[in-house]
C-alpha cells in the first residue's frame, strides 16, 4: 500500500514536468533562393540543407515549413519556439529575435529592365520600386528619399511585375534576386543592376522565447558541422 501511495504522489509531479518541458524548435522559411526555396524536385538551398543536417545531427525530424515570407517572420516573432532563415539582422530587429547562426553578408541592389539606360540616384528615386513583403530593407529606400515603394509576396512575383512593367525597379539582396532569376527561368541579361544601396548579414534566427538550452543545441550542431567540413561543402553547392 505504501508503494502505491508513493506512485500516486510522484505521478502528478512527473506529468507536470512533461507538461512544462520546453517545445523543440520548428523551422519556417520562405522561397528565397539560394538560401531556401521549394524547387520542382523538393526543398533545397544553403540554409535549408544546413537545417536538415543540423536536425540529423540532433536526431530530430528534418522538417521545414514553407510559407509566404511576411507570414514566416510574423510566426517566429509572435511565437515561442520557431526558427527562420535567412533573416537579415538589422537594428530594428536586434532585440526581437535570437540570432543563432550567421549565413552570409549581402549587398542590396536596385535592378531595372536591361532596356533602361544607366540611371543616377535622383532618377531612381522617382521610380516605382518593389521590395519583398516583410523585409526591413524598405527603410533603406525611405532613408534615401525614394518616393514609391511597392511590396510583393516573393521574388517570383517581383520579377513578374518588373517584366510586366507594373514596377520600374526591384530592390533586393543581389545573390537572392539573381538566384531567383535562374530558378524561375528569367534570363539575367534581361535585367541590369543599377546600383547597390546598403548591406546586412543574414542569419538562421529564432523566436525570442525559444528555450536557451534548445537554442544552444542547434548552435552546437552547427559548430560540429562546421568543424567536419559539412558547412563548407553545402556552401559550395549554392554560394559561389
Tell me what the CATH architecture of the largest domain is: 3-Layer(aba) Sandwich
User: Which CATH top level class of the largest domain fits?
Assistant: Alpha Beta
Please outline the major beta sheet: 8 strands, mixed
* Poorly predicted runs: 1-19
* Helix run count: 9
The number of domains: 2
- Assign an overall shape: globular
Question: Total number of β-strand segments?
Answer: 10
Order of strands, widest sheet:
4-1-5-10-6-9-7-8
Q: How much strand?
A: 25-35%
Give the mean pLDDT.
92
Judged by helices, strands and strand pairing, the structural class is alpha/beta
What is the structure about, briefly put?
The protein has 240 residues and is an alpha/beta fold.
Give a topology summary.
Blueprint: H1 2-20, E1 26-29, E2 37-39, E3 42-44, H2 46-58, E4 64-66, H3 69-78, E5 82-89, E6 97-113, H4 121-124, E7 128-132, H5 138-143, E8 148-152, H6 155-163, E9 169-173, H7 174-183, E10 191-207, H8 212-227, H9 230-238
Parallel strand pairs: 1-4, 1-5, 7-8, 7-9
Antiparallel strand pairs: 2-3, 5-10, 6-9, 6-10
Structure notes:
The protein has 240 residues and is of the alpha/beta class. It folds into 2 domains: 120 residues, 3-Layer(aba) Sandwich (D-Maltodextrin-Binding Protein, domain 2); 95 residues, D-Maltodextrin-Binding Protein, domain 2 (3-Layer(aba) Sandwich). It has 9 helices and 10 strands. The strands form 2 sheets. It has an 8-stranded mixed sheet with strand order 4-1-5-10-6-9-7-8, with helices on both faces. Strands 2-3 form a two-stranded antiparallel ribbon. Helix 5 links the parallel strand 7 and strand 8. The longest helix is centred in the first third of the chain and has 19 residues. It starts with a helix and ends with a helix.
Amino acid at each position: 500500500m505504501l508503494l502505491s501511495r508513493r506512485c500516486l504522489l510522484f505521478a502528478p509531479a512527473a506529468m507536470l514536468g512533461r507538461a512544462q518541458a520546453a517545445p523543440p524548435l520548428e523551422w519556417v522559411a520562405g522561397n528565397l533562393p539560394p538560401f531556401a526555396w521549394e524547387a520542382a524536385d523538393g526543398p533545397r538551398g544553403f540554409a535549408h540543407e544546413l537545417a536538415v543536417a543540423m536536425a540529423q545531427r540532433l536526431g530530430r525530424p528534418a522538417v521545414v515549413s514553407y510559407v509566404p515570407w511576411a507570414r514566416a517572420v510574423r510566426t517566429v516573432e509572435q511565437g515561442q519556439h520557431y526558427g527562420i532563415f535567412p533573416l537579415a539582422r538589422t537594428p530594428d530587429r536586434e532585440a526581437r529575435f535570437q540570432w543563432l547562426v550567421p549565413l552570409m553578408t549581402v549587398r542590396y541592389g536596385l535592378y531595372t529592365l536591361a532596356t533602361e539606360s544607366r540611371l543616377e540616384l535622383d532618377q531612381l528615386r522617382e521610380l516605382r520600386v518593389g521590395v519583398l513583403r516583410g523585409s526591413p530593407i524598405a527603410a533603406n529606400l525611405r532613408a534615401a528619399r525614394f518616393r514609391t515603394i511597392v511590396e510583393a509576396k516573393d521574388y517570383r512575383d517581383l520579377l513578374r511585375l518588373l517584366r510586366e512593367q507594373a514596377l520600374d525597379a526591384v530592390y533586393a539582396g543581389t545573390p537572392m534576386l539573381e538566384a531567383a532569376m535562374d530558378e524561375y527561368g528569367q534570363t539575367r541579361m534581361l535585367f541590369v543592376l543599377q546600383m547597390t544601396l546598403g548591406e546586412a548579414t543574414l542569419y538562421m534566427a529564432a523566436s525570442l522565447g525559444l528555450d536557451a538550452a534548445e537554442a544552444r543545441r542547434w548552435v552546437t550542431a552547427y559548430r560540429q558541422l562546421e568543424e567536419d567540413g559539412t558547412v563548407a561543402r553545402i556552401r559550395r553547392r549554392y554560394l559561389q
